[in-house]
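Deliverable D4.2, example record:
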Amino acid sequence: MDLDVVFLGTSASAPTAQRAPAALLVRRGGDRLLFDCAEGTQRQLMRSTLGLPDLEEIFLTHFHADHYLGLPGMLKTFSLRQREPPLTVYGPPGLVELYRSLGRIVGKLSYEVRLEELRPGEALERDGYRILVFPVHHGVSAVGYVLAEHERPGEFDASAADALGIPFGPERGALQRGESITFDDGRVLTPDAVVGAPRPGRRIVLPGDTAPVETVRVLSEGADLLIHEATFLEDERDRAADTLHSTAVQAAEIARDAGVRMLALTHISTRYFGPELVREAREVFEATVVPKDFDVIEIPFAERGEPALIRRAARPTRARDPESDSRSEPDSSSSVFSA
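Output generated by the structure prediction step:
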């Protein structure tokens, strides 16, 4: 099952020529989950190799304008297409009131918009994974999300099965599913004889905007990918505290203490270009990247390798990148350590 994250908007409160405000798409198999929907998100999707998919679910972390202003336009575009299936928007308490205030802009739609207010501690069950909701520290009604896959069965030991005389066919399939089998002579064989210990599923942690908080560290323990805001450099730590945001170093400290496989810094202030953030963060946690818009992070199962940042993977053409000037680090198309 493929799992990746497409970064559609990596800027903080204002867009730049190179970065749109907050939005990212998680793709797992055929599922498409949009987290935050800032100004211009639908255009970012249409500029990408993805196009504008018929999303079924949108998750908002909080109701600062740079995280939801793209929602009315996207909803209207879906209606212009004569969409019929319902769309569910999730968010913290206050979502219904926000949508009511947007009603005059959104108007009548060709489909139903379902609103689900989520509170910390709730979980949404999906096929093969769940989405956990947790509290963050941003001074407004705000939540973070964890996409956590279910445990997978352990690896099947074909050599052990051969030695035990288990024929190829439904018997091996039953053991892989965790079921015991009975031989013709009455012997019962349990799955643990040929199947290893259960293997953990993958986990992505998306706190949204937040000051450093212990909840994020705890939920990120052993995570495959932590996507953490880094609005400021360390010399602006006091301002980060005043505005309930984080510095790159603070995000890196959380990643280091939680033992994550990769840290992706986003929500980049317009005063920065990216390389300066990654340099500070890597002093604390080496496996740090700063994605640009249209970059993709692929997340394989742990036994198949480390998460990898793929530059411009969701961009149709390799247009000249205005950030690639003397202040930028050399690019790498697939390195876990790309800035």
